Amino acid sequence: MEILADFSLDELVEKFNGLPRFRVKQIFDAIVQGKDYAETNLSKEIIAALKPNYILKPVEVVKVLTGKDGTKKYLLKLHDNNIIEGVFLHQNYGNTICMSTQVGCRMGCKFCASTIGGRVRDLSAGEMVGSIAAINADNGIKTARNFSNIVLMGSGEPFDNYDNVVKFLNLITNKDGFNVSERNISLSTCGLVDKIYEFARLNFNITLCVSLHATTDEVRKTIMPIANRYSIAEIVSALKFYQQQNNRRVVFEYCLIKGVNNTQQDILRLKNLTSGLICHVNVICLNPNGGSLKATTRKEAEQFVADLNKNGISATLRRSQGSDIEGACGMLRAKTLNKTKSE
Ligand code: SAH
Q1: Are residues 107 and 230 in contact, defined by beta-carbon separation less than 8 angstroms?
Q2: Which of 33-42, 167-176, 304-313, 324-333 is predicted with the least confidence, judged by mean pLDDT?
Q3: pLDDT recorded at residue 342
Q4: Domains (ranges, CATH) in the chain?
Q5: What DSSP string runs through 30-91?
Q6: Is 329 designated active site?
Q7: Is the predicted pLDDT of residue 190 greater than 90, yes or no?
Q8: Cα–ligand 1 centroid distance for 57 (angstroms)
Q9: Cα-to-centroid distance, 329 and ligand 1 (Å)
Q10: What is the mean pLDDT of the chain?
């Protein structure tokens, strides 16, 4: 079975060259609107020809949890019954969808629930498109005009699924499809340096975020195994290259862990390593996930941000949206898998 969302409109026109373009456009619109065959106005003949060979709706909503602040957490099912997550955030400057790029993750970060069961498989580009379509449809959003931002910050490491993620970015920004502006897309990586260089050369105008979480390689190695492969200095050089290529401000994510990365020396080191880069530091309060790492208090986090600002570093404390609905990366999926196992 092929997933139709893996293709652009032009590729589908070529693929189904026996059909008039407007028929193919109907198929394509169904993909964008997150519809399955029965919900479309495609003719019986076309449906009969397509259905045995092609998946029209690759992602289905199986559960939605709505938080007090309106944040919606989605459990999404793929055609092979694998489960991924997505989040829909209402913000005053527009809606944001946070999406996954892999089923699970193999990066092994100590604080992150997505990595607990390892990586099951990569998502195809069409499955990423399908998760956006499914979440949009659930929110009554029919056209790209009604939603604004996409962040690739859910489960998985985008640069560990590089080719499909690049294909997804091409599909989602295509003017015939969702037509999302590159400026409204952010991609978060734990810092696969060779891929940052490769990606920089593609000149996407998207915001690149790096999960830093430590200011020395020694400390970073204790919480993020990827630090054994790439040093912080190498990451910073790669980001400088990214910035030269596309002039975008880069973002560091910095999750505060009590007694690990929140000292005054960390602030000074952050000052040093960010100098020469146009960047922003997104400070996050750790969601302890029941693990051994401890969160700081909100007050300590606010102080950390204030100290960064005092040192001339642009930084904000991320609002913790959806914390009442297992909002952090991979938590809901991990919980659901556990429950299924014990049933
Ligand atoms: N693999 C990518 C994207 C997924 S993680 C990356 O590493 O950037 C997205 C963000 O959520 C990262 O900054 C990650 O560090 C953060 N995160 C994961 N688990 C968390 C937790 N328990 N509490 C707070 N933030 C968390």
Answers
A1: no
A2: 324-333
A3: 45
A4: 1-54 (no CATH), 58-342 (3.20.20.70)
A5: HHHTT--GGGS---HHHHHHHTTTEES--EEEEEEEE-TTS-EEEEEEETTS-EEEEEEEEE
A6: yes
A7: yes
A8: 28
A9: 6
A10: 92
- Span 234-288, pLDDT tens digits: 999 999 999 999 999 999 999 999 999 999 999 999 999 999 999 999 999 999 8
Specify the residue with its C-alpha closest to ligand 1, atom 16: 329
State the pairing for strand pair 207-211/185-189.
parallel
User: What sign has the CA pseudo-torsion 199, 149, 71, 252?
Assistant: positive
270 CB less than 6 Å from ligand 1?
A: no
Residues, the chain: 343
* Ligand 1 mean position, distance from CA 186 (Å): 13
Name the pairing type of β-strands 94-99 and 149-152. Answer: parallel
- From CA 166, how far away is CA 259, in angstroms rounded? 38
224 and 231 in contact (C-beta within 8 Å)? no
pLDDT of residue 143: 65
Q: Which residues contact 133 (CB under 8 A, 6 or more apart)?
A: 5, 31, 32, 33, 34, 57, 59
pLDDT mean over 306-318 = 96
To the query of whether residue 98 is one of the catalytic residues in this protein, the response is no
Residue 81 CB burial class (10 angstroms; 0-12, 13-18, ≥19): exposed
